[in-house]
Amino acid sequence: MAFKICGPKSVLCMLILSAMGVVILSVVGILFRFNCATFAEDLMIEEIEEDFVTKMNDRYKELAYNCLIAAGLYGITLGVAIWQYNLNRRDGSMDALF
């Protein structure tokens, strides 16, 4: 049983935002995974200690993991948006937008 949750305008907004979220967070996650120096300020390591490099690498991995999880959640949202888009298109609601 399929039911509409969102209208046609909110579905288009959700499609665009979730697609952008997947792309952007995936790229940022990959850059964190390869220890991109541009994101060094985002590591939030306050003190330089003996094991600074180890803490830095661990923090890069943690942030990469978090970005990729968020990209996956945006992917789920994109799937829901595609599902709702197809329901709205079958219903004829999308015709009024174009």
The rough form would be described as: rod-shaped
Number of strands: 0
Roughly how much helix do the residues carry, as a percent range?
Answer: 55-70%
Largest sheet: none
C-alpha Rg, in Å?
19 Å
Order of helices and strands: HH
Report how far apart the termini are.
27 Å
List the uncertain runs: none
Total number of helices? 2
Proportion in β-strands: under 5%
Which whole number gives the mean pLDDT? Answer: 89
Category by helix and strand content: mainly alpha
Q: Characteristics of this structure?
A:
mainly alpha; rod-shaped; 2 helices; 98 residues
Walk me through the structure:
This protein is mainly alpha-helical and about 100 residues long. It has 2 helices and no strands. The model has no long low-confidence stretch (mean pLDDT about 90).
Element layout with pairings:
Blueprint: H1 8-33, H2 52-91
Transmembrane segments: 12-34, 63-85
GO molecular function, one term: RNA endonuclease activity
Family: Belongs to the RNase K family.
Summarize the structure.
The chain is an all-alpha fold.
